[in-house]
Amino acid sequence: MRANTVIMIVLAGVFGVLAVVLVNIWLAGQRSAMAKADGVQEDTVVVATAALKFGDILSADKLREVAWPAGAVPAGAFKTTKELLAGDGAKQALQAIGINEPVLATKITGPGQRATLSAVLGEGMKAVSIRVNDVLGVAGFVFPGDRVDVLLTRTVRDNDGADKSFVDVLLQSMKVLAVDQVADESKDSPTVVKSVTLEASTRDAQKLTLAAGAGQLSLALRQAAASKGETTERITLSDLTGETPADVAARQAELGKKAAAEAAAAEERKRAEEDRKRADDKIAGLAQAVDRVGSKLDDLSKIKPAPAVASAPEVHEVVKEVVKYVQPEPPARATVGVFRGVKLETYDVPRQP
């Protein structure tokens, strides 16, 4: 065996042993780090020592610091009580906070800030109140924090004069901020209320305001986990009576026939009016023609014969001029108009002596 081959085999064995040693050292370090992380809590989180509700003032006796796994601290949590209570003025709870629940920045007010609805509104959202009663408000079982659908009931008048009622789902999955003047989400006893305040975008707030005057608003309580919208359709009285598509088609066909008959009658009345107008124009034209003929006859009857004027005598010749009035003969034929209903018919007939 050559020397180069022996050297390569030896080097390969040395590098293999070295790689095994390095891998073992790295794995031991990882196991040590994991054991250290499992046994030691590096961070702390402030939690509530008593149940807090909307508007409760935070104080040191209601808070405590507890150990929390490193890297698993909730967003917005406070590490120390001093950090949470820092600032000028007291802080209040905006939502219900249970015992040993981490106190997050989104659930409390700022220093000196009041616990009002404006503090719990989301970015760009508005608070809009609508009037309800014991039925429209789901019998008082709607509480702050619930999600509801807003229904709009309206009655409009059709072209045929009949009233038509229908219900539309105006808005879906609207968050309830307050019932009457209570915004405490820990409230769990049903109460008949007169108004419900909802969180809405600017456009949805406009819809609610307009709908309040256009019809009757009512609420439909949604399942707590059902936050997504669903496809809806308009419900009319025909859906309550169970009419089939054939019934609806037959009724629409009947309405179409009625509309066609009314249109035909209107067209017939229009044509009759036009015929009457044309007949009136013809009669007026005949009357004017008769008046013109009568005027001409009167003018002719007033013409008198001119006096005879004798010329100067001439030698052996006498000239006489005689002017004789001739009565013009009346026309041999005459035009007679006869009405048949509203239609004027004219006839050319011989004039009787």
Describe the structure concisely for a colleague:
The protein is α+β, with helices and mostly antiparallel strands and 353 residues long.
Could you explain the architecture of this structure?
This protein is of the alpha+beta class. Among the domains are: 42-115, Type Iii Antifreeze Protein Isoform Hplc 12; 123-241, no CATH class; 243-289. Helices cover 34% and strands 22% of the residues. The protein has 6 helices and 10 strands; from the N terminus they run H-E-E-H-H-E-E-E-E-H-E-E-H-H-E-E. The strands form 3 sheets. Strands 3, 4, 5, 6, 7 and 8 form a 6-stranded antiparallel beta sheet that branches. The chain has a two-stranded antiparallel ribbon with strand order 1-2. Strands 9-10 form a two-stranded antiparallel sheet. A hairpin with a 5-residue loop joins strand 4 and strand 5. It starts with a helix and ends with a strand. The relative contact order is 0.07.
| H/E element sequence | HEEHHEEEEHEEHHEE
Percent in strands: 15-25%
Termini, distance in Å? 165 Å
Q: What is the structural class? A: alpha+beta
Considering the chains and any ligands shown, give keywords for the structure.
alpha+beta, Type Iii Antifreeze Protein Isoform Hplc 12, two-stranded antiparallel sheet, 10 strands, 34% helix
